[in-house]
């Protein structure tokens, strides 16, 4: 079975994501929100499709400004569903807007989205999935697992012999007892 560490290096889209983002600890709420939005939008599609549309997502969702996205109204929904640069799926668009509002609430109760994640860490993947399903929209096992691996909360983003793995370990990802 191929691993992302086998496929990504040298690829114009996967390579930079693999080498500089995937699995690295993320504490910034805007970056966490972006990653959640991208994972939600990847459902049913290839990660390459999402990476190629990433800049369009940034423009469409106001650079993932949580407060601005949470305030999106019907005009914004219509705009998003007409934007060929992103994935025009009503359920995904609605989930992104709803989840921005959830993150606002998490900031009130835990100081930040990262604070909420840290508060619940460590959990098993199954426990995380149950928590995310109770808290957010459009967050099944694959989306939650990839989101948490990609942001350093669950292991498995890289093979142990991948050079990037050692860089991540030096940063103390949550899954490694940090």
Automatic annotation (TrEMBL):
Provide this UniProt record's keywords sorted from A to Z: Metal-binding, Zinc
One of the record's GO molecular function terms: metal ion binding
Pfam families referenced in this protein's UniProt entry, alphabetically: Adenine_glyco (PF03352)
- Name of the protein in question: DNA-3-methyladenine glycosylase I
Q: Which residues bind Zn(2+)?
A: 5, 18
Task: Cite a single GO BP annotation.
Answer: base-excision repair
Organism, as annotated: Billgrantia tianxiuensis
Q: Does the keyword Nuclease apply?
A: no
């Amino acid at each position: 079975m191929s691993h992302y560490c086998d496929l990504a290096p040298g690829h114009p889209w996967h390579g930079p994501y693999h080498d500089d983002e995937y699995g690295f600890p993320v504490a910034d709420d805007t970056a966490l929100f972006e990653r959640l939005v991208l994972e939600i939008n990847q459902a049913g599609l290839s990660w390459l499709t999402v990476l190629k549309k990433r800049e369009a997502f940034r423009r469409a969702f106001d650079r993932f400004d949580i407060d601005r996205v949470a305030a999106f109204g019907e005009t914004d929904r219509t705009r998003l569903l007409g934007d060929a640069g992103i994935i025009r799926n009503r359920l995904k668009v609605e989930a992104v807007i709803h989840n921005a509002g959830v993150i606002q609430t998490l900031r009130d109760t835990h100081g930040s989205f990262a604070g909420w994640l840290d508060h619940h860490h460590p959990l098993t993947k199954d426990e995380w999935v149950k928590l995310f399903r109770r808290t957010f929209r459009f967050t099944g096992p694959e989306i939650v697992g990839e989101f948490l691996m990609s942001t350093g909360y669950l292991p498995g983003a890289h093979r142990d012999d991948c050079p990037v793995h050692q860089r991540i370990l030096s940063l103390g990802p949550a899954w490694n007892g940090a």
